[in-house]
Amino acid sequence: MFQKGLKGVVAVHTKVGLVDGDNGILRYRGVDVKELVLDYSFEEVAYFLLYNNLPSENELQLFTNKLIKGRTLPEYVQTIIDTLPSTASIMDAMRTAISAFGTTGFLEKDTMEQAIHLTGALPVIIARHYRNQQELPIIEQNSDFSHTENYLWMLQGTSPSLAQVEALETYLKLTMEHGLNASTFAARVTISTESDLPAALTSAIGTMKGPLHGGAPAEVLNLLEEIKEESRIRVVIEEKLKKGEKVMGFGHRIYKTEDPRSILLREACVRLQGSDPWLDLATMAEKEITSLLEKYKPGRNLYTNVEFYAAAIMRSIDMPSVLFTPTFSMARMVGWSAHVIEQVEDASIFRPQSLYVGDISEK
């Protein structure tokens, strides 16, 4: 049976993640994402996704040290990034730099070791090219900082607040893994040919670059900036609905109920209420917009998706929109790697059929 874009077609068996859109459930390796996000750090959740168990204190320290080691880019990778034109997008810089790790010495490492190393390296790659684009001096990594805190440090050159770190880290943990999405599928297809991890991750990054996959939070940011203050929420949204315009940040192709990631991001914003006006605006706007959507589009059940609160969080930490998709990719590196490792164990190449619909007449 033909399904355009393979929608609904089961292509793999996986133990990495469960996405149940009908019931609004997201699980990492069988554990509800809420339990992981609320109780564990980025490093602990990443370890869990990669190894299928939570780390002991010693295992966590070793894992963290490996991530920190990955922050030191080889000189040739630094040179590649520094010679890219400023007009090259950050996603293109990421794709180029990650592919450059495909050297004999690096590929001799165990695949898991490669995955941890590249997870540690990607934030540095992002920050380095971004600061080059802005004609700002490079900020060296700080080994005393966590994965999330160090990322903000390298981007901004100042120590982020605890509220900023908590908000961004919640987002990163929630977006590490989300089933067989387009970029994850691309990574699994590449590795299924017995290629290597840098090649598979390069495929994933190239896929994530597409605006249909990784670019939605920027549109939500435009909406929040148009609203600006609580008193304008109803005016702005009613005008859009009367014109038949889409309200960005509401509705999801998979989730038919509330996106569980959105619920947890909302809770993070509520916990941080009063710490940032953009987080406060987002929580107030959601209530008003949901009410208006029910009025103008009854029965559609349009709830906030992960991009709505992601945009508020990005704005609260002064992150420009060009960094939204790279930051999303920084989190998804963990999920991509977990899927790649699982696909290696399966050892089955993807080879779907195509249906020829062209001219069959003799020329």
UniProtKB/TrEMBL annotation:
<dbReference type="InterPro" id="IPR036969">
    <property type="entry name" value="Citrate_synthase_sf"/>
</dbReference>
<dbReference type="Pfam" id="PF00285">
    <property type="entry name" value="Citrate_synt"/>
</dbReference>
<comment type="similarity">
    <text>Belongs to the citrate synthase family.</text>
</comment>
<protein>
    <recommendedName>
        <fullName>Citrate synthase</fullName>
    </recommendedName>
</protein>
<dbReference type="InterPro" id="IPR019810">
    <property type="entry name" value="Citrate_synthase_AS"/>
</dbReference>
<dbReference type="InterPro" id="IPR024176">
    <property type="entry name" value="Citrate_synthase_bac-typ"/>
</dbReference>
<comment type="pathway">
    <text>Carbohydrate metabolism; tricarboxylic acid cycle.</text>
</comment>
<keyword id="KW-0808">Transferase</keyword>
<dbReference type="InterPro" id="IPR002020">
    <property type="entry name" value="Citrate_synthase"/>
</dbReference>
<dbReference type="InterPro" id="IPR016143">
    <property type="entry name" value="Citrate_synth-like_sm_a-sub"/>
</dbReference>
<dbReference type="InterPro" id="IPR016142">
    <property type="entry name" value="Citrate_synth-like_lrg_a-sub"/>
</dbReference>
